[in-house]
Specification:
The chain contains 6 helices and no strands. By secondary structure, the protein is an all-alpha fold.
Length: 124
């Protein structure tokens, strides 16, 4: 089985972060209709499984990036916790992107031994 490229997993992760947030919104609307207005359960019946699928996809892609990008544990922990709170996945995605955790170069730098990087800086 062929493993997807790092850039493909990053694109998938970013898309799932946004999709997970939108599915949270749909699920919250469905829960409002079910429990507050007591009009219909259809919103929860539709949005619940969709949100669950996006939640699991986001979690799998975050775990994949943790390994591929060699994220520190705290970054992976924040990625996982962001899926629990409504709309936090978008915030985490922006935070991680601004700090370079969602670039292909981050994985290449992490996989290069420190001695080799030190030699490159010294011009050896």
């Amino acid at each position: 089985m062929k493993v997807p490229s790092t850039s493909a997993v990053i694109r998938i992760f970013r898309a799932l972060a946004v999709a997970e947030a939108f599915s949270w919104a749909a699920l919250l609307v469905g829960m409002f209709l079910k429990w507050v207005t007591r009009t219909t359960e259809l919103g929860v019946e539709i949005a619940g499984p969709i949100h669950g699928a996006f939640f699991i996809g986001y979690g799998i892609s975050a775990l994949s990036l943790w390994g591929m990008q060699r994220w520190p544990f705290r970054v992976a922990l924040f990625a996982g916790l962001s899926a629990v709170f409504p709309f936090a996945t978008v915030g985490f995605e922006r935070w991680a992107g601004c700090r370079g955790y969602l670039t292909v170069r981050a994985a290449q730098a992490a996989s290069t031994p420190a001695r080799q990087r030190a030699g490159e800086k010294a011009g050896v």
